Amino acid sequence: MKQTAIAVILSGAALLTSASWAAFDGPSKVYPLISVTEVEAQTDDAIVKLQGYLIKELKPEHYLFKDDSGEIQVEIDAPVFNQQTVTPSDKVEILAEVDKDWNHVSLEVEKLTLLDGKP
């Protein structure tokens, strides 16, 4: 009886442990690719996806992002770089949240991916 109770407890603990490591593996929300000039029309806190280049560091964690349509300031926290080195000649894709103040629009980058076949 004692062994059965222990086995039930251990199997329940194993289920809880494996469930805590589980993650969704399937399609996720698709964000259409937009340009810098289209960011202005987005609402505050909207999630957007852009492709272009980080051309200049303005101050720590703040950069100038450029695509064919224009430039915009982006904020990228160090962990978002995921230990990748990015130069102004590296094309990147960013997934970012629009940050609108009464007279300024910028992006807070949540995900950065190097393009052009780079890891």
Automatic annotation (TrEMBL):
InterPro entries: BOBF_sf, CarO-like. Residues 1-22 form the signal peptide. Keywords: Signal. NCBIfam families: stress_OB_fold. This is NirD/YgiW/YdeI family stress tolerance protein. It comes from Motilimonas pumila.
